[in-house]
Amino acid sequence: MNFASDNAGPMHPSVLDAIVKANTGYEMPYGNDTIMPRVRDRVRATFEAPEAAVYLVATGTAANALALSTYTNGWDAIFAHRVSHVEEDECGAPEFYANGARLSLVDGAGAKMDPDSLRHAIANTGNKDVHCVQRGPVTLTQATEVGTLYSLKEIAQITAIAKKYGLKTHLDGARFANACAALGCSAAEMTWKSGIDMVSFGGTKNGCAGVEAVIFFDPEKAWEFELRRKRGAHLFSKHRFLSAQMEAYLQDDLWLELGAKANANCARLVKGLETVAGAEIPDAPEANMVFARLPRAAHRRAMGAGAKYYLYPSDASLDGPDDEMIRCRMVCDWNKSGAEIDQLISLLRG
Amino acid sequence: MNFASDNAGPMHPSVLDAIVKANTGYEMPYGNDTIMPRVRDRVRATFEAPEAAVYLVATGTAANALALSTYTNGWDAIFAHRVSHVEEDECGAPEFYANGARLSLVDGAGAKMDPDSLRHAIANTGNKDVHCVQRGPVTLTQATEVGTLYSLKEIAQITAIAKKYGLKTHLDGARFANACAALGCSAAEMTWKSGIDMVSFGGTKNGCAGVEAVIFFDPEKAWEFELRRKRGAHLFSKHRFLSAQMEAYLQDDLWLELGAKANANCARLVKGLETVAGAEIPDAPEANMVFARLPRAAHRRAMGAGAKYYLYPSDASLDGPDDEMIRCRMVCDWNKSGAEIDQLISLLRG
Amino acid sequence: MNFASDNAGPMHPSVLDAIVKANTGYEMPYGNDTIMPRVRDRVRATFEAPEAAVYLVATGTAANALALSTYTNGWDAIFAHRVSHVEEDECGAPEFYANGARLSLVDGAGAKMDPDSLRHAIANTGNKDVHCVQRGPVTLTQATEVGTLYSLKEIAQITAIAKKYGLKTHLDGARFANACAALGCSAAEMTWKSGIDMVSFGGTKNGCAGVEAVIFFDPEKAWEFELRRKRGAHLFSKHRFLSAQMEAYLQDDLWLELGAKANANCARLVKGLETVAGAEIPDAPEANMVFARLPRAAHRRAMGAGAKYYLYPSDASLDGPDDEMIRCRMVCDWNKSGAEIDQLISLLRG
Amino acid sequence: MNFASDNAGPMHPSVLDAIVKANTGYEMPYGNDTIMPRVRDRVRATFEAPEAAVYLVATGTAANALALSTYTNGWDAIFAHRVSHVEEDECGAPEFYANGARLSLVDGAGAKMDPDSLRHAIANTGNKDVHCVQRGPVTLTQATEVGTLYSLKEIAQITAIAKKYGLKTHLDGARFANACAALGCSAAEMTWKSGIDMVSFGGTKNGCAGVEAVIFFDPEKAWEFELRRKRGAHLFSKHRFLSAQMEAYLQDDLWLELGAKANANCARLVKGLETVAGAEIPDAPEANMVFARLPRAAHRRAMGAGAKYYLYPSDASLDGPDDEMIRCRMVCDWNKSGAEIDQLISLLRG
Predict the structure, then answer these.
(1) Rounded to whole angstroms, how far apart are CA atoms B306 and B1?
(2) Which of A95, A223, A224, A231 would you mutate first to test chain D, the one with the most D CBs within 10 A?
(3) pLDDT of D283 higher than 90
(4) 3-state secondary structure C133-178
(5) DSSP β-bridge partners for residue A288
(6) Does C74 sit within 8 Å of B134, measured CB to CB?
(7) Residues 99-138 of B with CB under 8 A from A
(8) DSSP code of C265?
(9) Residue B294: what are its φ and ψ, rounded to 5°?
(10) Sheet architecture: strand order including C198-202
(11) CB contact (8 A) between residue C133 and residue A92
(12) Which of C74, C130, C227 has its CB closest to that of B75?
């Protein structure tokens, strides 16, 4: 009963199979394996972007930091939401890779950038001649860190603001599949057709062992990216094992299928949570993650039986009045069984 | 017939099996998986170092750059051989991770540091007060980039010089197993018993998909290393797949067995090369790599039949006089069959 | 009539004289001049800190960035007010010098850190294990960027919060003298006696040409600072001209006298502004800087006659309705004459 | 009798006068002073480069590091002579400013790059695809660190090699004036007419207190340089005092006159040294610096009487056999009197 994160689950059998199959004989290293050209083609087809530059790395943080750094000078600000992975969970990797660039924080409900807040942040950056930090790229997260979604229109609104200032846009798609499945749109619609310039296309949280594609719709800086990836020590010699994962992940739109499954699992979980006495679910979850407030006794029962998920604050105690409400986060990946979800609900209900 | 590099081969079946087995259910992410404590114990046992700090990363460049940076200030010099991976093949990753530190190059035959050259390099660094770059760690590669070995005595000689100046020592062990097998010594003897403070213990080139252990015999900077690893985007969420590889690699000293096999394969290759008319093998190979000079016609036959290995210069043409000698490098991993080696020899002999 | 900034004025005659006198014969370079030991002694005496490490640089940004970087890892956050020089006016120098560290912004009225806001910022940093940026030093500005002052008690309150978390504290004293004169306290009281660990002691804005002292009350990292200063290209060969300025500046507490004069000039200016019809001065100025709202017509008259100061927004037009209020900033240095101030007032009054 | 360095002497009276004159009233800060446009024009006229971007900083290390960083990526190598200021005396400032770029060392007699050595260094960089450090700018020093000179033809030869590879060229002109005076050529001839793209034009060692001009003949990266200067904390608020120095320095070619004087002083010194019994002067000095080997007794007499200059090794003892030869370096600036030189010679001769 691990609902702690979608990075706690296993690989999808097809992805594992691909690794097994790739483990045959010799392959040239460092991205020159025979699988990678097919991966490149498939990513391009999936994104309807025949010219895109496509690279693989093994962690989402590497994808984000390397992609952003390619379009960020050391004296630039990267515009990111206050509640975003680059700000909260990467130990300063964006600043490290971008030579000391700054994150300029944007507000907005549901971890989604408010257009006015973004406009304000951009207007107040780079407006004092040489004295201040200059304007760099805008990065948004889809699905967000709290499981909400930008609509296509909202993405377009954000990117339009960036474009007005001539800024590049990046989409942190660690949960790209969940978002795409929930919106029912195409990968192209959620990215370049909505004004996105570069994407971290996540596989790790959605059925892979550790692979993310970095996609630049304009390949002008492809070579620079390759140098940055190598210099950051993120170019794999046995690259075929990254390629194999990604190939399986894209095959027959497995990525989308798994994203949809994770969302469905979460919906089932939410439905169950609504039946827990006293439960409060402030925001209707849109992807594969739910935040809820539940009585302490419910948490005590579930966690006592081995359920894993996060409480807020993180040091919240299970000792105390039964009725006191404690906030929690639960995440579903594609691999959750209905039985496991039902078991959790059953425990929470008592 | 791929003799290009030991990073071109597959995983050992045991390593693959471990990945398959690890793909069950849920594991806490970021190094908190249930396999990692066993890996830590096993590394400590293997190195007879019960206090050692042990971490996993996925590339050799990450292992080297992160380990070195932990003991290098931006204004320090890292002493490395002119022919070393950190100097030649990492696109400046050590400088990037160590905030602009400098590589100070040491000479010596066979890609091994000459003690006098090292002494000279150290003495000429940090000797001009605040004006010059200061003295940082010494890194040596075992087996070296050209397949030679430091004897235990030679390692001790190098580390003694470093210690005299109070400098830390690092061993780049991308081919640790090959060296250890060839020397017939223990992992402890080749490292801390010879004065080494930190090790990049390679798995990738020797039967793994992508895993290297960073080992600090003194754990004082363990927490700093963890921050550096995360910030460098090298902390895997699905870390269990790194742990699994390393566990299998250490089980029953598989690492050592594979290192010995690769060396034996290379010995067989060398024996065969000696029968190629005109072949010159200047240095007796000590590990799993051989440099030879062969007539162009031999290369033409082998490469024409699909054999892969490197020529020097890298743009050497196969068109030209048959008898002209062209230098080449051939590397064996554990997975070479006798038949494959014999086939190559047969082609070269014509 | 230049009221744009206190960095627009001349050197005090005594400081210029010191430069002239220092221009005799030969002096050893790079801080080994014969004046510097006297400067060191005088700074130590002024701050009642006989063990302090004392260094000179030529710009306030260098003083701040170098001092902070000495106690900041690349993965740390520096806690600074949202309205501070390090955040707004140094083009990311702190991040550059501190290897990509982050500024964590603290709120509070009058550009002064609110203790709760600081507590909150610290508590929300470094609280997610290895995943997040860690806690670094706290820097506060005295006098602040908007001319307000922390009382001694307020400084102590801020530093107590920092100490509780084991964090170092830095005081950006570009306008140290103005603050000290206004508070009527000693240099020691405003710094280490209130819990400050390191100071940028400004001379440039208060009668010098370009010199700032960096003071560490605990000299443990003195050598590291020297390396950072040199590596940052801020160690002057003809250092005597920095030493000479600082010696004159400290002689007979000239620094304090000039700070007091600047404050008095500003008080006179404020008194005059209060007589301008329609003028609004929301906050009583505490040092040498005033923010006021004045009718456009007043600005038009003053600026038309050559007066220089800043309007907000910076592109505010002088064309438009006479009565519309436009915000402005006026700064006085020690060198303003009463006549000049009165002339400005006279123009504003019309 | 200070012959230790040309950075140990005073300002020329005209330069000091300019500072005194500049100390009048108010000037807009940060390079917006009224003197700077005249300086820009004069530099452009002096270098016959009407489009050049011209900036002032206060130290030679800042000039070099900032100029080079503007054309160097973090993954690039800067080609510099093994005996150069950027390599030996800047504590890694080039690497710091260029985000961890590497210095690739070139050999050659007399601290001058040997064309073959440069060609070799360039050819062996950037030749291993993404794995190795890439080719960055070439920097040469004129006059060199050992007082020798590149002829115009030699400069052109070096820059032609750089151009062949599409690399930018930088001239470290800390002793630009000495070189220009000795060669009897124009500033343009020694720079862009010989293929140089950017120059650190030194004032500090030749009669100024602390000012260097950075000149880009192609201004395409002017704005980036301004950001780098500010971010490096090298933009002076009271910039007028840098402008004033440089204006006086350029007035009536004072720079050239002082360079010639320093050279003449050195020639007189050399002539005298040749009369010291046992003296050996291996290379005929070409600018304002001489390396000689003199008997210990001569050093003992001179240094005992207070003469200052450097011995090699730097810890050479004055105690020991009278006849033993000890190497030394003596530097003359423009300000040396004939009497002072003669006194030194007299002491050395005994």
Answers:
(1) 7
(2) A231
(3) no
(4) CEEEEEEEECCCCCCCCCCHHHHHHHHHHHHHCCCCEEEEECCHHH
(5) none
(6) no
(7) none
(8) H
(9) -130, 155
(10) C53-57, C212-216, C198-202, C169-173, C134-141, C76-81, C102-106
(11) yes
(12) C227
Specify the DSSP class assigned to residue B290. Answer: E
CB atoms within 10 A of CB B34: 11
pLDDT one-digit tens code per residue, B139-186: 999 999 999 999 999 999 999 999 999 999 999 999 999 999 999 999
Q: Does residue D137 register a pLDDT over 90? A: yes
What is the C-alpha to C-alpha distance for residues D14 and D275, in angstroms, rounded to an integer?
Answer: 35
Token pair, residue B347, equals 């082609």
Q: Identify which of C74, C131, C224 has the shortest CB distance to residue B99.
A: C74
Q: Closest chain A residue to D233 measured between Cα atoms?
A: A131
Q: How far is A97 from chain C (nearest CA, A)?
A: 9
Backbone angles phi, psi at B308, to 5 degrees: -120, 125
Report the distance separating Cα C211 and Cα C204, nearest Å: 6
Which residues on B lie below 8 Å from A4 (Cβ)? 26, 28-29
Task: Please indicate, yes or no, whether the overall pTM of this predicted structure exceeds 0.80.
Answer: yes
DSSP H or E stretch at residue B295: strand B289-295
Per-residue tokens: B236: 């895997």
Identity at B199, one-letter amino acid code? V
Q: What tens digit of pLDDT does each residue of B36-49 get? A: 999 999 999 999 99
Q: What is the DSSP letter of B280?
A: B
What is residue B165's three-state secondary structure? Answer: coil
Select from A38, A47, A41, A5 the least CA-distant residue to A199: A47
Q: List the structure tokens of A139.
A: 């990065």
Question: CB count, 10 Å around CB of B312?
Answer: 12
How far is it, in rounded angstroms, from Cα C11 to Cα C203?
10
A325 touches chain B (CB under 8 A): no
D118 vs D124: CA distance, rounded Å:
10
* Residue count of chain B: 350
DSSP of B43-108: HHHHTT-TT-EEEEES-HHHHHHHHHHHT--TTEEEEEESSSHHHHSSTTHHHHHTTT-EEEEE--
What pLDDT is stored for residue A284 in this prediction? 83
Pairing of strands D289-295, C169-173: unpaired
pLDDT in tens, A40-97: 999 999 999 999 999 999 999 999 999 999 999 999 999 999 999 999 999 999 999 9
Percent of chain A scoring above 70 in pLDDT: 100
Q: Please report the DSSP string for A150-199 in residue order.
A: --HHHHHHHHHHHHHTT--EEEEETTHHHHHHHHT--HHHHTGGGT--EE
Kind and range of the H or E element at D139? strand D134-141
Helical segments of chain B, H only: 13-22, 36-46, 60-70, 85-88, 93-97, 115-123, 152-164, 176-183, 187-190, 222-231, 240-250, 254-273, 296-304, 338-349
Query: How many CB pairs (< 8 A) connect A and B?
Result: 145
Set of chain A residues whose Cβ sits within 8 Å of the Cβ of D228: 75
Asked if residue A313 has a cis previous peptide bond (ω within 30° of 0), the answer is: yes
Please indicate whether, in this complex, the C-beta atoms of A133 and C91 are within 8 angstroms of each other.
yes
**Alpha carbon distance D169, D67 (integer Å):** 10
**Spatial separation of the C-alpha atoms in residues B102 and C318, rounded to whole Å:** 55
Closest CA to C141 of C187, C189, C181, C199: C199
Angle, CA of D343, D344 and D345, to the nearest 5°: 90
Neighbour-count burial for D260-295, b at 16+ CB within 10 Å, e otherwise = bbbbbbbbbbbebbeebeebeeeeebbbbbbbbbbb
Query: Which structure tokens are listed for D86?
Result: 């950027």
Give me the sign of the Cα torsion angle D227, D232, D234, D237: positive
DSSP state of C308: B
Q: How far is CA C21 from the centre of its chain?
A: 28
Encoded tokens for A278 = 């006293």
